[in-house]
Amino acid sequence: MSITISSVFDDVRRAVAKENGYCSISDFNAWSKMAENRIIDFITGRIDGISLPQMYTSQKDKDIVSPFIEKYKSGLDSEGQITKPANYYTYDNLYALSLKELECDEDDIDSACDDDKKQDADTSNIEKTVIELLDGHAFYIRAKSRIKGLAPSMKKPIAKERGNYFEFLPNEIGGVTLEYVRYPVYGVAVGMMDTEYNEEVIDESASTDYEWNENARNMLVDIIVDFFANSVREMALKTMNQATAKTAP
């Protein structure tokens, strides 16, 4: 179940009020977006420019990021590559798609090899082969290799990231499925005035709730509170928050 943005806002205001602080809705929205980016960065493995991200060190990590895992199917262009989806954040898995080889008698017109049946083949006839994602150096070494088992083949395809593209070998791969982690649709709080108490409150009907599951609530609250404490240089609040929080770094 996703988290309502109003409930996180209430948790944040309650935390900052302990040190007589006040968090506006506009500030909350800015820090909330940064908090979402920090969480997804932490869970998926920070990119250091040297090694590929290492995701899912525990099942809990995978559960937290699960709302953002998408599948994207595409054929390769003339250069043996595909373009990343617009909401792509980071890689999860890659598979090459091909039709399973069917054994049949050429004289048997009712067999699975019949042309009409080939056209009507369903997904049960599709074979997925895991594509190994490599860094640029390893990709080019494998691309030039003539050693069986290392050279790219339909049984052992390889890929590398290049800017906004994934590049594949061998070029004969017909199509691929990319499983990736996308950016979240960010939660946005919209305010309105409570005429009875003359204070700004959340308009839940106009706001956008988080896509995160409940297991991310504490991280969202703790990180936003930490941003608030940094902005007002409230060290007592920051110390209290760090003493009780279980936040992403």
Uncertain runs are: 49-53, 108-112
Mean pLDDT: 83
The ordered string of helix (H) and strand (E) elements is HHHEEEHEEHEEEEEHH
Radius of gyration: 25 Å
**Beta-strand share of residues:** 15-25%
Q: What's the total count of β strands?
A: 10
Subunit organisation of the chains? single chain
Class per helix and strand makeup: alpha+beta
Largest sheet: 4 strands, antiparallel
Count helical runs: 7
Strand order of the largest sheet: 1-8-3-4
Helix content: 25-40%
Shape: elongated
How widely separated are the two ends? Answer: 25 Å
Question: If you had to describe this structure to a student in words, what would you say it looks like?
Answer:
The chain is α+β, with helices and mostly antiparallel strands and 249 residues long. It has helices at 5-17, 25-44, 59-65, 115-119, 136-144, 217-232, 235-244, and strands at 69-75, 81-83, 88-99, 126-130, 132-134, 158-162, 165-169, 175-182, 191-194, 199-202. The chain is elongated and about 75 Å long. Strand 6 and strand 7 (165-169) form a beta hairpin. The chain has a 4-stranded antiparallel sheet with strand order 1-8-3-4, with no helix packed on it. Strands 2-7-6-5 form a 4-stranded mixed sheet, covered by helices on one side. Strands 9-10 form a two-stranded antiparallel ribbon. 32% of the residues lie in helices and 22% in strands. Helix 1 (5-17) crosses helix 6, helix 2 packs across helix 6 (217-232) and helix 6 (217-232) packs antiparallel against helix 7 (235-244). Residues 49-53 and 108-112 have low confidence and may be disordered. The longest helix has 20 residues, at 25-44.
